[in-house]
């Protein structure tokens, strides 16, 4: 069994030619039909007279042409299938990349929003502490106002008593 190298190439498609195709076909037909007996041997198409050489068969050219046509059809369909698969995989890869970028953007935006909320919370706490400090000084002011009112009331009662 000797395989010859590529015989032709078009559109990234290589064709291989087997130099012993007839022999392979003959052997495969013998292996696939073991029920044939030696008495019902096929009719030889060529043989050497007076010698015990093997019988030569010539394959039907229509069968070979049909096989070649089917092989080309299958190769073309496989090529289309591979192109479709490549296109689908590229599309899936693009979608995956877009989804990853979208996810990254949403995570980044969420982190920025949480960071802004934390900063606002700390700013509000600082203002609350400042307000508490102002309210504590209000208590002092309230005490001072109460003392002034008490002094004014005492002065008024002392002044009214001295006039009477």
From TrEMBL:
Pfam families linked to this entry: BORCS6
Residue ranges, compositional bias (Basic and acidic residues): 25-39
Coiled coil, from the record: 131-158
Sequence ranges of Polar residues compositional bias: 40-50
Coiled coil as UniProt keyword: yes
UniProt source species: Steinernema glaseri
Top-rank taxon: Eukaryota
Name assigned to this protein: BORCS6 domain-containing protein
Record region (Disordered): 25-50
GO biological process entries: lysosome localization
Keywords: Coiled coil
A single Gene Ontology CC term: BORC complex
